């Protein structure tokens, strides 16, 4: 495992210390041999062809930019031309291969990044654990007996385990932020509609986002910039790109008014999670116990919308072959399909109410803080956990603090607290809609102050 | 109770969730395999509990707007 960053690989390439082919070969070898069950496919021939093209471009004096020659991998719900888009399922194994790359994949390839494989996930992105019944569980690189989180568990594990410095995932209710937090890496969920979702297998169309995972905040900015831009294939009409990576120093110095979300966002949190939040809050001189009214209702509405929309999306397959689904996902989708339509309608009606409450709060703050998850990564196979004195489902509860935020589409960076040798704990840096720059400002400042950092798992420390 | 009755759904007792499951399954033509019934009923009960947390907070007669973050 290399544990390189996007930026360090870029330097190695430009300084002639490595070729794109050498970098790709190493990532491919690591992806084939990795112990995290992060990869579900390795694209060796295509990756080497892309790497050779990057090397040829360099030889011809063409600099493709900071992602040139950087290996990356994607959650297996992203279309990759010539490969079946599994979305973590058995049902789609007989589907026709994708005829084109997802927009996000195409953008990274166009920037010279080299796609080395596809990654494990909860079936159809419905879960927070990546204990996939068909592909097996993704393992947390910091403790192989623990979950990587989900649903983008393979995406977080691949970066945390040092296989690739960049992966893509999707986040409907927390599926980027939770695995990033549990695996101790950076993950970004942008504003709803900022990054094109075209060519990804949907879960809940009105809540789905895509975003990157990396080992540093600066790498996250590079990836975010490459993924931005209009796309007529996504009906949310992503806006023109607003690049950030050229102004990271300025962002890191920017003054921020920061609040720590209390109430629902800390209810039942484990002591180490509260401690992590306090450390980040101190570093940003944040005001404590800020209340975002209606968060519990927002979480409930997101929960119900997901079941209902997901159930409707899968109605025909549920009717025809329900037993081919992952049991944990199947029962939730079936229940969602059986809901009265008025449940989803009520959940949609509450959305602007809660959004307006958040907007009001952002009149006083540039950034809000909340834990990513109530606890560090639970053991693989653990079905229930205690939250605020009650036994609750791990699979359904890890998103308690992330769901209200994605329900209203706010941009978030999940940042790993700098606590080497301890189980990773993440903090959500939550910005107003369309102000990803403010989340980056906080992440960069915290990273430069040594408050947040991605660490090598203990087994791989040199 | 029709599937579209929101207040009736919220007021389902645990004992009546299975009957709702059967009725709604038949209405929609969505068979629920026997081996899944307990899990689906459990999820329906959870969704009923969650629905009570937000369903009463808005006016059902109001239009649903196209959401902007």
TrEMBL record, chain A:
Keywords: Hydrolase, Transferase
Protein name per the record: Asp-tRNA(Asn)/Glu-tRNA(Gln) amidotransferase GatCAB subunit A
Enzyme Commission no: 3.5.1.4
GO terms for MF: amidase activity; transferase activity
Organism expressing this protein natively: Caulobacter zeae
Coiled-coil residue windows: none
Class of enzymatic activity (EC top level): hydrolase
NCBIfam families: amido_AtzE, PRK09201.1
Record PANTHER family: GLUTAMYL-TRNA(GLN) AMIDOTRANSFERASE, TRANSAMIDASE
InterPro entries noted in UniProt: Amidase (IPR000120), Amidase_dom (IPR023631), AS_sf (IPR036928), Carboxybiuret_hydro_AtzE (IPR014087)
Residues covered by the Amidase domain: 31-437
Automatic annotation (TrEMBL), chain B:
Name recorded for this polypeptide: DUF4089 domain-containing protein
UniProt source species: Caulobacter zeae
Domain of life: Bacteria
């Amino acid at each position: 495992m290399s544990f390189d960053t996007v930026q360090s690989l870029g330097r190695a390439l430009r300084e002639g210390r490595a070729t794109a082919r050498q970098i790709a070969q190493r990532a491919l070898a690591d992806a084939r041999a990795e112990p995290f069950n992060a990869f579900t496919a390795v694209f060796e021939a295509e990756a080497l062809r892309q790497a050779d093209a990057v090397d040829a471009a360099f030889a011809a004096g063409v600099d493709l930019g900071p992602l040139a020659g950087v290996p990356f991998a994607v959650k297996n719900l992203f279309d990759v031309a010539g490969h079946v888009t599994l979305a973590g399922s058995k049902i789609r194994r007989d589907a026709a291969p994708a005829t084109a790359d997802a927009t996000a994949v195409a953008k990274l390839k166009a920037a010279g990044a080299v796609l080395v494989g596809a990654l494990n996930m909860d079936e159809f992105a419905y879960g927070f654990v990546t204990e996939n019944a068909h592909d097996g569980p993704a393992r947390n690189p910091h403790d192989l007996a623990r979950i990587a989180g989900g649903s983008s568990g393979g995406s977080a594990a691949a970066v945390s385990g040092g296989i690739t410095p960049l992966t893509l995932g999707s986040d409907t209710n927390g599926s980027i932020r939770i695995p990033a937090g549990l695996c101790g890496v950076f993950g970004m969920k942008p504003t709803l509609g900022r990054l094109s979702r075209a060519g990804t297998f949907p879960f809940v169309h009105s809540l789905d986002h895509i975003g990157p995972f990396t080992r540093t905040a600066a790498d996250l900015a590079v990836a975010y910039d490459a993924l931005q831009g209009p796309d007529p294939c996504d009906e949310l009409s992503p806006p023109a790109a607003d690049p950030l990576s050229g102004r990271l120093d300025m962002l890191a110095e920017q003054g921020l008014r920061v609040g720590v979300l209390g109430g629902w966002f800390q209810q039942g949190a484990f002591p180490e999670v509260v401690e992590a939040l306090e450390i980040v809050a101190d570093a940003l001189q944040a005001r404590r116990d800020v209340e975002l009214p209606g968060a519990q209702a927002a979480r409930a509405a997101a929960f119900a919308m997901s079941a209902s929309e997901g159930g409707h999306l899968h109605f025909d397959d549920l009717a025809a072959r329900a037993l081919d689904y992952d049991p944990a996902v199947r029962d939730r989708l079936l229940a969602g399909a059986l809901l009265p339509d008025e449940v989803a309608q009520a959940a949609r009606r509450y959305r602007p109410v809660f959004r307006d409450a958040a907007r009001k709060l952002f009149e006083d703050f540039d950034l809000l803080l909340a834990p990513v998850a109530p606890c560090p990564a639970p053991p693989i196979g653990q079905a229930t956990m205690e939250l605020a004195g009650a036994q609750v489902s791990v699979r359904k509860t890890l998103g308690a603090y992330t769901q209200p935020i994605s329900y209203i589409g706010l941009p978030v960076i999940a940042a790993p607290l700098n606590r080497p040798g301890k189980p990773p704990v993440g903090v959500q840096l939550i910005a107003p809609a369309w102000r990803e720059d403010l989340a980056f400002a906080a992440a960069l400042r915290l990273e430069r102050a040594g408050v947040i950092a991605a660490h090598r798992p203990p087994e791989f420390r040199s | 109770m029709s599937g579209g009755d929101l207040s009736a759904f919220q007021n389902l007792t645990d004992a009546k969730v299975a009957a709702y499951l059967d009725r709604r399954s038949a209405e929609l033509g969505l068979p629920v395999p026997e081996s899944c019934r307990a899990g689906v009923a459990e999820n329906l009960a959870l969704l009923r509990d969650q629905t009570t947390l937000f369903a009463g907070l808005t006016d059902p007669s109001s239009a649903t707007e196209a959401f902007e973050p």
